[in-house]
């Protein structure tokens, strides 16, 4: 009997231990599942990750978020005496009108008594910001238009784009900068998500690009941050928009039978763009954009641009490279047709 009792006793202890261990395991699994399914825990973790990117987080639909971004970023940029530098308005342009796809907007303005136009490309997933001062034509009413103030405006345009790309799914951001007092608007920035991705900009927190959490005064931007701003935003195109008032689009198939013109599909002069045939669709967008860029170049460098083809040739000509780049940026993924000059 003694032996039987001594053998039964430890078995009973093991059974109790196994039951307790099973209860602990079940409880741990239940707690883990409850933690994973708790929305407040998930939200808190996600918000913490977002807070590490920037100090502000918009909410709602894309249309709501860009309005919040415009208000937040615009309110943080100040003049020396504390006034807001510019107001920022945000909009999502329509991409279809009467079942026709819109590929660009044309802005009209008064140019020496005559109406001129500025073409602004848009994508199917685009946001427009306009930075407007309190002076005439959205100019900044107070202070001098210095290079330092222009860099501060470019910093603001960059911050608008960074917030927009981080918190929305838009593909491009077009930002209009205010002009100098007494002048018409001069600068339009086109920021592309694809370019920011390729440069690794979107993988970094905001403070890694714009180190100062509060925008510094125009003359006090640190040298390292100024170099970053210049590297991303410094205008690659000319400061003035193309003047299109007297530029004509001409279909001239006979011209392209001549020896010099036979290898081209389009040819630009100071006042006209000649096309081999009346093209349509994407081909027309790319080709006309390419040639219109050449018109733009000749308006600013009427002698240097044509002579460059004699001095540097065609394939590696910087004006030709710029025209190709203009077509690529306005129609991502589609290159201009071969043989455009």
Describe what you observe in this structure:
This protein has 341 residues and is α+β, with helices and mostly antiparallel strands. The chain folds into two domains: 62-233, no CATH class; 248-330, no CATH class. It has ten helices and eleven strands. Strands 1-6-7-8 form a four-stranded mixed beta sheet. It has a three-stranded mixed beta sheet with strand order 9-11-10, covered by helices on one side. The protein has a two-stranded antiparallel sheet with strand order 2-3. Helix 4 (147-167) links the parallel strand 6 and strand 7. The N and C termini lie far apart (110 Å).
Largest beta-sheet characterization: 4 strands, mixed
Unreliable residue runs = 1-9, 35-49, 332-341
Tally of separate domains: 2
Main-sheet strand order equals 1-6-7-8
Provide a count of the helices: 10
- By secondary-structure content and strand pairing, the structural class works out as alpha+beta
- The backbone outline, from C-alpha atoms, is globular
**SS elements, strand count:** 11
Helix content: 40-55%
The helix/strand order is: HHHEEEEEEHEEHHHEEEHHH
C-alpha end-to-end distance? 110 Å
Strand content is 15-25%
User: What's the pLDDT, averaged over the residues?
Assistant: 76
Evaluate the radius of gyration: 30 Å
